[in-house]
From TrEMBL:
Signal peptide: none annotated. GO terms for molecular function: nucleic acid binding; RNA-DNA hybrid ribonuclease activity. This is Ribonuclease H. Pfam families: RNase_H. It comes from Candidatus Micrarchaeum acidiphilum ARMAN-2. PANTHER family: RIBONUCLEASE H, RNASE H TYPE-1 DOMAIN-CONTAINING PROTEIN.
Length: 139
């Protein structure tokens, strides 16, 4: 059976680098099936964005049974990260290379994963962002 996930990710940093957080929400058949929001410590915003995607793809992998495949559509408000993952922008930062490789590797293991840039006003991205800001406010 092929499962289909819709994923919304976001990363936030106060300062660059500065206190940062990453989070995601995963939907299947229109229902939220997973979410997670974590404090990263002092990191850049791009790190937080990549980490959110890694966390979400790892969670998708955990939710799959051994022989299951999935397709996933992942939405992020980070134009830079999405365009790097889609090969439209070069990856110039040495610090982001291992994160990019990890995302590409996870996506390959899952099956078909599409990355799409959306505006931060998207209701699900806004919800993830709100949760990240609450987490950062509590630190």
């Amino acid at each position: 059976m092929k499962r289909e996930f819709v994923i919304f990710t976001d990363g936030a940093a106060r300062g660059n680098p500065g206190p940062s957080a990453s989070g995601y929400m995963i939907f299947e058949n229109g229902k939220k099936v997973a979410e997670e929001f974590v404090f990263n410590g002092s990191k850049t915003n791009n790190y937080a964005e990549y980490n959110a995607i890694i966390m979400a793809l790892e969670r998708c992998k955990e939710m799959l049974k051994d022989a299951e495949e999935c397709s996933a559509k992942l939405f992020s408000d980070s134009e830079l990260v999405v365009k790097q993952l889609n090969g439209e922008y070069k990856l110039k930062s040495q610090d982001l290379r291992p994160l990019n490789r990890k995302v590409v590797g996870l996506a390959a293991k899952l099956g078909k994963v599409e990355f799409e840039n959306v505006r931060r006003e998207n209701k699900h991205i806004s919800e993830v962002d709100r949760n990240l800001n609450l987490l950062l406010d509590s630190r």
